Amino acid sequence: MPLSHHDQMTLLKDILNNHQVDCCGSVAECEQLERLVKSLMVNPNIHENIKPILQEVFNYSQNGQYTQHLDFHIESNQENISEWVDQMNIYN
């Protein structure tokens, strides 16, 4: 059974929250973020105000997949992650 867009948003926020709390993550999580964002970007039920945030999360996940120092990448984006999740909570 495919995930609804609400479930996808919840999963996206959960992964980002884990990155924020743990200050670490995996390449697989970055790949999952990318897949979730791609799916949400084409979903007509997603509020237009979330799409720029999703683009930022997509860039974050892309950079995370290819960095040599993923934990540093996550740590340096702590403020962004917090802002993204807060904004997603407003529109979701």
Strand content: under 5%
Overall pLDDT metric:
95
Total domain units = 1
Class by alpha and beta content = mainly alpha
Distance between the termini: 21 Å
* SSE string: HHHHH
SS elements, strand count: 0
What features would you describe in this structure?
The chain is mainly alpha-helical and 92 residues long. It has one domain. α1 packs antiparallel against α2, α1 runs antiparallel to α5 and α2 runs antiparallel to α3. The longest helix is centred in the N-terminal third of the chain and has 18 residues.
Labels describing this entry:
92 residues, mainly alpha, 5 helices, globular, YtzH, YtzH-like family protein
Task: Explain the layout of strands and helices.
Elements: H1 5-22, H2 27-41, H3 51-66, H4 70-76, H5 78-91
Helix pairs in contact: 1-2, 1-5, 2-3, 3-5
Organism: Heyndrickxia oleronia
Pfam families: YtzH
Protein name: YtzH-like family protein
Give a quick summary of the entry.
The protein is 76% helix and 0% strand. It is mainly α. The mean pLDDT is 95.
